[in-house]
Write a structure and sequence with these properties.
It contains eight helices and six strands; from the N terminus they run αββαβαβββααααα. With about 250 residues, the chain is an alpha+beta fold. It has a six-stranded mixed beta sheet with strand order 2-1-6-5-3-4. Helix 5 packs across helix 7, helix 6 crosses helix 7 and helix 7 packs across helix 8.
Length: about 250
């Protein structure tokens, strides 16, 4: 079986990464992540950030941006359950990228790449993956993750990808710290809907509790997502927590 982090025989990487640009909005960050995904042949990308401070027991990895769409919650939970503890421990001690194999893979990382990454034990995750750690302090710590059936990664590419991951996390942190303009501030209904969504309520349940229609609840959640410059409801909830709107 071909290892997911090795190059197919006779084929070398032809893609060269251009000079990094400075994304200004979340949509630009998503474009940068999509480019990383394409370069390594990944199926999906995700950004996991560390929420909470202090002792390891008070901190957790949370997916704040991904291309998993409706599967974000399940996919993120599966990854955190499989490797979350190891990733958190790794982030405290090393900046080497972390790789793992999917449940159908049984080969090891090539000797050439092994010196530049840390390999986790095999898991029952459906895809192989590579996670680039970034430490920016406080809420800027986390991983840019790429997953897929086959990832085209060599030693030169892994260094370039790691640098790009750092720039992405810097941009996300800067966006979080940017103060919202008065016109962009969340109103009481938007905050209430986000809080309930963050507590695990679906739109129908929120509508019933607030005496609103499901359409109105979805509209409030949509405007809140736009105001927070988030790409989906999951990221909007995570941003609202960091900005102090909800708990």
């Amino acid at each position: 079986m071909v290892h997911p982090f090795s190059q197919p025989g006779g084929e070398g990487p032809e893609i060269r990464i251009a000079k990094l640009s400075r994304p200004k909005r979340t949509t630009d960050v998503v474009a940068a992540l999509q480019h990383m995904q394409k370069v390594v042949g990944a199926r999906n990308f995700a950004v996991f950030r560390v929420l909470g401070r202090g002792l390891p027991s008070t901190r957790r990895l949370t997916c704040t941006l991904s291309s998993w769409a409706g599967e974000t919650e399940n996919m993120a939970r599966g990854l955190v359950e499989a490797h979350g503890e190891a990733l958190m421990a790794h982030l405290d001690t090393s900046m080497l990228p972390v790789v793992w194999e999917g449940e159908d893979a049984n080969a090891f990382v090539s000797d050439e790449l092994a010196a530049f990454v840390q390999r986790l034990p095999a898991s029952r995750l459906p895809c192989a993956g590579i996670a680039f750690p970034v430490r920016l302090g406080s809420s800027g710590n986390g991983f840019v993750v790429l997953v897929g059936d086959f990832l085209r990664v060599d030693t030169d590419l892994v260094l370039d990808m790691h640098m790009r991951a750092g720039h992405i996390m810097v941009d996300l942190l800067a966006a979080d710290e940017k103060r919202l303009q008065p016109a962009e501030a969340l109103n009481e209904r938007e905050i209430a809907c986000l809080q309930m969504a963050g507590d695990g309520c679906i739109s129908e349940s929120i509508a019933e509790k607030l005496g609103l229609s499901v359409h109105t609840v979805n509209a409030y959640l949509g405007t809140a997502t736009t105001k927070l410059d988030a790409v989906n409801r999951v990221q909007a909830i995570a941003k609202a927590i960091r900005l102090g709107y909800i708990r």
